[in-house]
Amino acid sequence: MYSKILVPIDLSDVGHGKKILGIAEKLLDPDGSIIVLNVVEDIPGYVAAELPDAVVRDLSSNAHKALEEATYGSSANVTLEVRRGSPASAIVAAAEQLEVGLIIIASHSPGLADYFLGSTASRVVRHAKCPVLVDR
Question: Each residue of 90-101: pLDDT tens digit?
Fold first, then answer.
């Protein structure tokens, strides 16, 4: 059982995110907490220049609202967090800063690009200093 679990959720696959949140609830100490994290990737400057200011400005608040919907009904002590940057780096940094005991992350079946570049889940596994549970 873990007292603090980090659950990064990709908002393009909320169903899998809800599944790993359920796993986290089962592995959580009775007095423990779950931190649900979404990382908003930075938009390259040349793309951001073409988008309305409101779109770029509202990315984080929209992600927070989506996390609220995804975690609605959870029986655990859940904290929501949205960070900006590279997903794998932000997840590993959050795990260290928040001193979590476990990261539970969803993974997909790897494509050709993942074999050369590595998926977010595999990067987290390689660089995290705490245990990582990967769910497919």
Answer: 999 999 999 999
